[in-house]
User: What shape does this take?
Amino acid sequence: MVAGILIALPLFPGMNIWVIAMMALILSPTDAALGQAVVTSSLVPQKIRQTINVESGLNDGIALPPILICLAALSAHDAHGSGFAYWGTFVMKQFIFGPLVGSFVGYAGGLLVERAAKRDWMNTTFQRLTSISLAILAFYLAEMIHGNGFIAAYFAGLLLGTTTHSIRERIHEFGEAESQVLQLFIFLLFGMILVPLSYQLWDWQVWVYAILSLTVIRILPVVISLAGTGLTRGTKYFIGWFGPRGIASILYLLMVVIELGAKGLEKMMSVIVLTVLLSIYLHGISANPLSKLYQKNNM
Assistant: This one.
């Protein structure tokens, strides 16, 4: 996040500092879905695969609070008069109501599914379908009381109140498959809508920043953070490279546009869209070859 801000400052001198910060924050989360070939590859040690996968699950949540702070700063003097006081309350609601609602829905919903399954009130098909129903319910209830729906859905899965292994496996497997379908659909809309709207603004600064975002801005902090872990230099670079940008960046961009509108944010949008587009191709193309190379050099 910090590296993204510092490198963007000289490249975009006319851009608002809060917009620059928000751009760097939106591009900081990684997406394991785009690195699926690496995360599931038997060529890569399990510890490395888990590292990449767990990081992807954590850093989108870490990025959300500072993104909301940037939204507060940018809306401090807007036409609605909603400044830091409004957004401070908004942030508190997001991070209190969301986890509370999600935890309740996941725990209570899981218990109900387990009881229904044990009494033969629910067959295996509907047990699997509860993954999407609980996520939607948690999201909707949290948004109703001005909590964060994404956080609520995350906590619903985290605190799922089902202890029977077979039922958990059914819910998990269907949720994984379902998420893949939804992710592909989001990428389809991304290519159909966002890319045509932004490609006219892809000047040299945008290209330079997008490339740096996937390389220096990503890899250097990873190498620094892994110092002292005993991992080889090649492993550090491998983990650093497979930090693709995807669903989280797209969703956060849409959240910002919904709250602030697109006017004045066109350049920021173009940078994010190009970075995600490059990531889709570069990380997708390099996944299998680099996994094979990693295995060869670490046998």
Remarks:
- The chain has one domain: 2-297.
- The longest helix spans residues 84-118.
- The chain has a mean pLDDT of 87.
- The chain is about 75% helix and 0% strand.
